[in-house]
Amino acid sequence: MILHIGIDSIPVRLPCLWEHGISYDTQDRILEDHGISDKQVVIFIEKDFNRLERLLARLTGAPRLLRRPLDRLNSALWDLIDGNRTLSQIIQIMEDCYDEEIIPARQRCSESISKLIELNLVELK
Fold it and tell me: Which residue among 3, 28, 77, 103 is the one 20 to 30 A from 111 at the CA level?
């Protein structure tokens, strides 16, 4: 499900466990100037087991945290979602940093943010 996100909406990260992983080693100062770490973002999502699943997880040693690594563009998007930038500003920064790789930027950023909203990782102000 893709939400229609207004261009003036401000995406905000919700509290969750996440960390920066591997570096992409992009040699571009513009990323740093915009607050993009150029590192992979890994989000950890706690699994919500029902009774049977909890029992099976205990027996099989299944992890309680789901590790969700983001690709390079979504990691940059995560870095830009700081609660201060509008979707319009985020799109402009992504276009400045990633040129043709992100085109159509508005559609790709909106779809990614919609997915993060579905996963309860982001909300809109």
Answer: 28
